[in-house]
Amino acid sequence: MPTLGLPDPSICEQARLSRDARFDGLFFTAVATTGIYCRPTCPAPPARSRNVRYFASAAAAEAAGFRPCLRCRPELSPADGSWRRGDDVLARALRLIDEGALADAPLATLAARVHVGERQLRRLFRERLGAPPIGVHGTRRLLFARQLLTQTPLPVTRVAMAAGFGSLRRFNACFRQAYGMAPRELRRRPEAGDGEVVTLRLNYRPPYDFAATLDFLRQRALPGVERVDDEAYARAFADAGGTGWFRVSRWPRRAGDDGHALKLELHGCPPSRMLATVERVRRMFDLDADPQAIGAVLSRDAALRPLLRRRPALRLPGGWDGFETAVRAVLGQQVSVAAARTLVARLARLHGTPLPPGLAGSGLQCLFPEPAQIATADLSGLGVPEARARTIHAIARALLDGRVDFSAARTLEDFVERWTSLPGIGPWTAHYIALRALGHPDAFPAGDLVLQRQLLTDEDCPASPAARAAALEGRAEGWRPWRAYAVVHAWREAALAPAQPPSRRAPPTRRKTA
């Protein structure tokens, strides 16, 4: 039975022969005569078509008995952004697997979290990805282990821990069964030290405007909590394993390297948190997006088409921490980006956790406060209305008691409904949080004035705010499931537009679409 998640065979064939990086991770090629599977960008001479099979996922290729290529290294492929995005059952299940849902719980628990039966979930995975959920989970762990073995000097015992294996013996057995070799045989560099600084390559599908993402984050950067310049983003993190920090920059271009990657430097990250941290960074920088799929939908709209032509490489700039993003959203209500940043930075300075002096070279000073630190904190020093302070307290308490969360199991509708039940949280705030904290591709804060100015014309722009939001939501129905990318395009267009003198600026409801 054909796999539903696989592009048309003729498209796969053309992409394979041309080594088209836009299809990296969207399918894998396997050669029957060698028993090897590859990325479509593999630099090896292409095999004859009659010997090639196509698979929708690395897990499907491995389930069919193929082993990953040592040259193109399938473990570096970005994930298929289409299957891991939005509210589809498969998308939510994959995100939960990425968060480790099958590491310590059975498949029945995962199925219950996405509200389907276990048998139905298996069927969806088989039909669309060509492999069962446990196969996707296992392949994900082993491919991450391969990346650590080939890119870092981490000892094999720490690699096993980082990939989610409870014992070195179990890791060696699984690795040898899957790849026919011991983990040590794959090493490209000798083991050395404890790997306090781990450097990893994070691939993406081109095009990708990393400069635009940095610009967005730099405008909102909190002094002491994060550091953003023209080259990189850095911030500290902490958990039960200790405190560390990371830096994200461009992967240096070299001869024979397509350069479609970012460079992640992890400082002091415990092995048990590495995979989760990598997944979090990938979401924050939207590295698994599929620009072709997004552009194909949004470019149908006459207002969005010129924006996509000008900037086809924009991504969703996410937030590192959900609670921080929610607080930013509340403090950013009805004020400028600069004013909101000042307020959030003041909160971090007053209530954040100072970093230990051992984080030399990071240039960072504190961690953003946790919900438990804010739930009963005195916020009178923030200089915000009392109602807004009450909303921040309410968010912290709701996160602590489980009334709201940032779970990948939730649909956008469920997420918005839960968050708007809190005092001071309306649809704009809830959708903004979903866009930046979850990276939800269909989040759409229709009440945003910038969106209305950029995306509504004179003819369809009513006078009242509620009517404008309703008109914009109606207009955006054709942009599903990628409405959040239309938001990012509109925000970027407005940010780069020449400033007009206040006396000559068009009224908000009359500004023409760019």
From TrEMBL:
GO terms for cellular component: cytoplasm; protein-DNA complex. Its cofactor is Zn(2+). It catalyses: Hydrolysis of alkylated DNA, releasing 3-methyladenine, 3-methylguanine, 7-methylguanine and 7-methyladenine. Keywords: Activator, DNA damage, DNA repair, DNA-binding, Metal-binding, Methyltransferase, Transcription, Transcription regulation, Transferase, Zinc. One of its GO terms (biological process) is DNA alkylation repair. GO terms for molecular function: alkylated DNA binding; DNA-3-methyladenine glycosylase activity; DNA-7-methylguanine glycosylase activity; DNA-binding transcription factor activity; methyltransferase activity; sequence-specific DNA binding; zinc ion binding. Its EC number is 3.2.2.21. Residues 91-189 form the HTH araC/xylS-type domain. It comes from the Bacteria. Pfam families: Ada_Zn_binding (PF02805), AlkA_N (PF06029), HhH-GPD (PF00730), HTH_18 (PF12833). It is an enzyme of class 3 (hydrolase). CDD domains: ENDO3c. This is DNA-3-methyladenine glycosylase II. It comes from Luteimonas wenzhouensis.
